[in-house]
């Protein structure tokens, strides 16, 4: 009975150890499907990550008079949809209309309230966006790119993602798609 217990304990130890090691190795060696708004994109393993020259880790994003956020989503083949929101709450969204026979770019303008600007800043701070590196490059030649630029006070932070999307970028992009772009597209 004692030998049987030891054998079962050994088997359990080997299985749990294998699961543990698989869990450690797998996240570094796989592609993930991530949801951004109503689109699902693939985030590939980062091949290159480039930090910035300026340390923005302790910067808190606030809707200062210089505040600006620009968010671009797309690819080199089909073009980029670009959102710009300024400190006064004016927003502009330029996008490629795929619904018509010929693809053409349209522009939508809208106004955000001071509370909505505060919510955007809160999402940027909550996600720790300002701590990200400046560039992330996945190990593929085609795919999706996202660029987000934030200006707060006299600090500018730009993050460019080429087929690799850190959680903070996905969080901010998904928020902008669902809470800023979609409601204003639906109202136009």
TrEMBL record:
Domain of life assignment: Bacteria
UniProt keywords, alphabetically: Membrane, Transmembrane, Transmembrane helix
Segments traversing the membrane: 6-25
Protein name (Swiss-Prot/TrEMBL): DUF4340 domain-containing protein
Lineage, top ranks: Bacteria, Pseudomonadati, Planctomycetota, Planctomycetia, Pirellulales
